[in-house]
Write a structure and sequence with these properties.
Arc Repressor Mutant, subunit A; DNA-binding; about 65% helix; homodimer; about 220 residues; 7 helices
DNA sequence: AAAGCCATGTAAGCTGTTACATGATTTT
DNA sequence: AAAATCATGTAACAGCTTACATGGCTTT
């Protein structure tokens, strides 16, 4: 009935959404492995209930293979030859040049909304701490800035609502309850971030020292 | 390649998930209208940027029609005859007996996770305040209980982690950061709930008075 | 020889999103 | 007559979940 869609909705932009925490977690896990390679089953274990990332993002093995295929399509990983031909055949994936670049870009970018702290930011934090603690410090500072601006804008909105409610007193303050909720959540996230920052600073100093001693 | 699935995954359980805030919001909006009826376009406006619910859950008109069809399938709404045959034809939906029961059940049920406060709980709260403020008070108290138990269990987990970290000092406290985050978010939600409770109590008293004067 | 883990996936069905199609009525 | 608004949807597709299929290797 409708004419066929003029264009498939921009296949080039497939990987351009800011989200995709699962895919980027896979990139990060590959970067954490020596040689930057790993196969699906092994990566899937990193999302199990015992693994640290498993407390933040849970992935069934099927989804891991699905995401790896997508990463391959995007050119962020490449398939390497199977080095150990004993066991059941593996398909080891290796981080590509582009993949490394994309990972770095993503790790420096704070999340825009408070609700994304719980999943996406925690994944970024875990990977940044493991890969390059100085980057984690930077990420935390950027995120602090975002949250502070959010709180400013919510406070302003809250005061506007205050006067409007007194004028008409309709819909029993619901809008203010919503804004208060967001302020509470964002404030809590900010206070938590400050505590995390001091921890991360310790880690970064320790990593810096071991860098220096290695040289 | 695979044999066809033995059973379609339990069509009877279609409406049994605890979630479905959009569908239940539609039930609630119908209940708020005199006669318990409304048509799609009108309901869709209640999810626009100006409407109070629009600040919590945003729905495109297409999704509203989609959900209404599902509610019809579940027997929670029925199609009523179009009473005003002037304008472009409407399809007014009416809340059924089952729909009213389902709405009540859902409104009394607190949400299980902190992350569901932002959307699902706020929808429940809005509808309960509008329909029956005494129910809102009850919902808030139930929700308080859930959050308090959550905080207890997170605190316990937090202390277990503390000792484990001192033992091995591996994976740089990440698990504790995650638990702290959840504690912070849940604590903030609880403090917010307490403030909302006093507001809701005022509304309930006012509603009780107007109930009494109507009698 | 059987049980269980290693390892890679596919199938089928849901939900959600975006965009568009269709046409009547009201306002400018 | 044109534009806006009322009103109801469908098409196309992307994403997620759950379950299962397939087979090699390892341990008991």
């Amino acid at each position: 009935m409708n004419p066929p869609r003029a264009e498939p909705p921009d296949a080039a932009a497939e990987g351009s959404q800011s989200g995709m925490p699962a895919e980027h977690a896979l990139l990060g896990l590959l970067a954490m492995r020596e040689g930057g390679t790993g196969h699906g089953y092994e990566l899937a274990r990193s999302f199990g209930p015992e693994a640290p990332l498993g407390s933040v993002i849970r992935l069934e093995p099927g989804m891991v293979y699905h995401h790896l295929k997508k990463l391959e399509r995007l050119g962020w990983v490449t398939v390497a030859p199977d080095a150990s031909p004993d066991r059941p055949a593996r398909r080891p994936f290796a981080l590509s040049r582009d993949g490394r670049g994309e990972l770095r870009r993503w790790l420096m970018e704070p999340v825009a909304h408070t609700r994304e702290i719980r999943l996406e930011f925690l994944v970024k934090l875990y990977l940044a701490l493991a890969l390059e603690p100085a980057l984690a410090l930077r990420l935390i500072d950027e995120q602090r800035g975002i949250l502070e601006r959010l709180i400013d804008s919510l406070s302003e909105q809250r005061e506007l609502g205050e006067t409007a409610v007194n004028a008409e007193s309709g819909s029993i303050h619901f809008g203010e309850m919503v804004t208060d909720m967001r302020l509470a959540q964002t404030g809590a996230a900010l206070a938590w971030l400050d505590r995390v920052r001091t921890e991360a600073a310790t880690v970064a100093v320790a990593a810096g020292r071991s860098d220096a001693s290695r040289r």
